[in-house]
Specification:
Blueprint (H helix, E strand, L loop, with lengths): L1 H19 L5 E6 L7 E7 L2 E6 L11 E7 L4 E10 L5 E4 L2 E6 L2 E6 L4 E7 L6 E6 L5 E5 L4 E6 L2 E6 L5 E7 L2 E6 L2 E5 L5 E6 L4 E6 L5 E5 L3 E6 L4 E7 L10 E3 L4 E5 L6 E6 L1
Antiparallel strand pairs: 1-24, 2-3, 3-4, 4-5, 6-7, 7-8, 8-9, 10-11, 11-12, 12-13, 14-15, 15-16, 16-17, 18-19, 19-20, 20-21, 22-23, 23-24
């Protein structure tokens, strides 16, 4: 009996170790028709996905940009839901407002009205990229061209942090900001203390929490990773670099679905995290 107990204990340890080291993977669910003209960002919101459509050069103020609506079944609801933007990228929602990064503008769109409510223009900005909102309704925006983070309260944007080389994706969680900066993911706080979470082989783009402290992170070049923040490790879960990009992702934690803008492939693809 004592020998059997030891065997059972050993087996449980082996199973626990296997579970701890389990490899994550993704299964492709669908991909939209290639009718979205250079989608850069996907934002999941309840029962649909908002997609930022550049339709031109990534940093050119050409007025061609738009926000599209896509169903969670992969059907394009409206490719031109809101127009009049230039090179829209990251997005975040606070109440009825959808905030969008658009070069030197932080554009606030009324979701109920389906039109631009107001713009916050920062003349000294180089090029806004990603957007995230915290639980207090404060909006955080990265400036990839100037290497900075801006804090937006109401209709006022103020510089929060600068000298961040290669900054792109940002996610506000509780009182912390998780940031993708070149080939690094770091976390910072109100005191601007900076701690590296993990190193990447490629420049990071999209960042989404999965709900257990870990993250899904993309590199624009066509790679997607599962990041274990506690261990400071990453797993490559998708490699599409030969055929398409993996830009600023959206995530539905309830269904564990990742929505990936393919940029120049003109589509959004959905993957199930397993």
């Amino acid at each position: 009996m004592k020998h059997l107990s030891k065997l059972c204990a050993s087996a449980l340890l082996v199973l626990a170790a296997a579970a701890a080291n389990a490899q994550h993977k993704v299964e492709k669910l669908w991909e939209t028709e290639p009718l979205l003209k250079v989608p850069e960002s996907a934002l999941f919101a309840k029962d649909l996905i908002y997609a930022s459509i550049i339709d031109g050069q990534p940093w050119e103020a050409d007025g061609k940009g738009a926000i599209a609506k896509v169903g969670t079944n992969g059907k394009i609801i409206n490719a031109d839901w809101v127009t009049g933007l230039s090179a829209p990228k990251g997005m975040a929602i606070v109440g009825d407002l959808l905030y969008v990064a658009d070069i030197k503008d932080i554009v606030a769109i009324s979701i109920s009205k389906g039109k631009i409510d107001h713009k916050i223009t920062v003349n000294e900005a180089g090029g806004f990229n990603d957007v995230s909102a915290d639980k207090k309704g404060v909006v955080w925006v990265t400036d990839s061209q100037k290497g900075a983070i801006y804090k937006v309260e109401g209709k006022t944007a103020t510089l929060f942090m600068d000298n961040i080389r290669g900054i792109n994706g940002i996610k506000a969680i509780d009182d912390k900001l998780y940031v993708l900066s070149g080939k690094e993911m770091f976390v910072t706080d109100a005191s601007k203390n900076k701690t590296t979470v993990v190193a990447l082989e490629q420049g990071g783009d999209g960042i989404e929490p999965v709900g257990n402290g870990d993250f899904i992170v993309t590199a624009w070049a066509g790679y997607m990773y599962y990041v274990n923040t506690a261990k400071g490790t990453k797993e490559l879960i998708l490699d599409k670099h030969a055929t398409e990009k993996t830009a600023d992702i959206g995530y539905d934690p309830a269904t564990k679905t990742i929505y990936v803008p393919t940029f120049s492939a003109n589509s959004i693809a959905a993957y199930k995290l397993q």
